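Q: I have 85 residues here and want to know how they pack in 3D. Can you give me a structure?
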Amino acid sequence: MSKQKSSGNLNANDTSSKTQCKMILTALRNGERLTHLIAERRFKCLRLGARIYDLKQQGHDIQRRMITVPSGKRVAEYFMNEVAE
């Protein structure tokens, strides 16, 4: 078996992850607070925690707090203290 040299991005999820990160970061910079459900509906993002991790690894100061939603479940809500002006 010979290994073929990669001719580009073979992981389509990598591109969508980067796009999701951009949209999430824009929302957070605009002062929005995001939960998993909001991210799923707005950005088609099923792994908000992973995208937040990616953004934190890039140096963004994203905070998390646990909130109780109307159903009684506790979920993570992400936000940034510094918002764009």
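Q: Anything worth noting?
A: The beta strands are 63-68, 74-79. Confidence is low (pLDDT under 50) at residues 2-10.
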